[in-house]
Amino acid sequence: MVKGMLIDYGGTIDTNGLHWGSVLWESYQKHEINIDKAAFSKAYSFGERSLAINPIIKPEHSFYDTLFLKIEQQFKFLAENGYGVIDEKFVSAIAKDCNDFAQTTVNNAKPVLEKLAAVYPLVLVSNFYGNIHKVLEVFGIDHFFKQVIESAVVGIRKPNPLIYKLGVDFLELLPEECVVVGDSFVKDIEPAKELGCKTIWINVKGWDEPGTAAEIQSDSEISDFSRIPEEIEKLNQ
Q1: Which of 3, 26, 149, 207 has the largest CB neighbor count within 10 A?
Q2: At CA 236, angle to CA 231 and CA 237, rounded to 5?
């Protein structure tokens, strides 16, 4: 029986399974940023690395702030690698697009989180930049979680299964009594299965992900966050 839940944040709660690369790329296209997808992918990866290894994000930064700083890094990469200088007005325009999208998606997820939190202790497990508490507070979902485990704070990043073990240990449950919910097979499902947890994979196509181990399968596969309660019922049968 499932007794506790470990839930990913980025790409799971805030996009309903869409990779953030896809969300940002759509806004780039909306604003007619004149680069191809290959160049964007390089800029996206550069931005992720920059925010992960440099103290750019501060604990008080909201998600809009995070997006703004991330897009600034992407534009910096493009300018420095021969793709041209992009008007800075598009930094705020794209950040607003994506923040609005996240706010809407999180609002849609709130009733699901409320329903789950009424039955199970919830732990958020996220690769994030040190400001996830502020993000959850601004989006109005911080109260649903008994604990938040953030990579920048604990010094462990997915796909290392130890970050999920921290959540299991907090709940004082056995791994097989916990279910992990995430959008990334490589970063969420594989390490969770290695640890011995049950898994629900929000599998929405739209961005490249490294190949998965054929011998590992998720216990449940869905395409919408709202289906989580019914999938847990199936796991408990």
Answers
A1: 149
A2: 100
Q: Residue 236: its pLDDT value, please?
A: 93
Residue 112 CB partners (closer than 8 Å, separation 6+):
225, 226, 228, 229
Q: What is the pLDDT of residue 55?
A: 92
What integer pLDDT is reported at residue 214 of this predicted model?
54
CB atoms within 10 A of CB 84: 11
- The HSE-up count of residue 215 (CA atoms within 13 Å, CB side) is 1
- How far CA 76 is from CA of 42, 79, 130, in Å, comes to 12, 5, 22
In the block, which residue shows the tokens 């992009």? 86
**How would you classify the pairing of strands 178-182 and 198-202?**
parallel
What's the confidence (pLDDT) of residue 223? 94
What pLDDT, on a 0 to 100 scale, did the predictor assign at position 217?
Answer: 87
Q: What is the pLDDT of residue 210?
A: 55
CATH topology of domain 4-18+107-235: Rossmann fold (3.40.50)
d(CA 178, CA 98): 32
**Phi-psi category of 118—alpha, beta or left, where left has phi over 0 and alpha has psi -120 to 50?**
alpha
Sort 10 into a burial class: Cβ within 10 Å, 0-12 / 13-18 / 19+. buried
Residues with pLDDT less than 70, the chain: 205-215
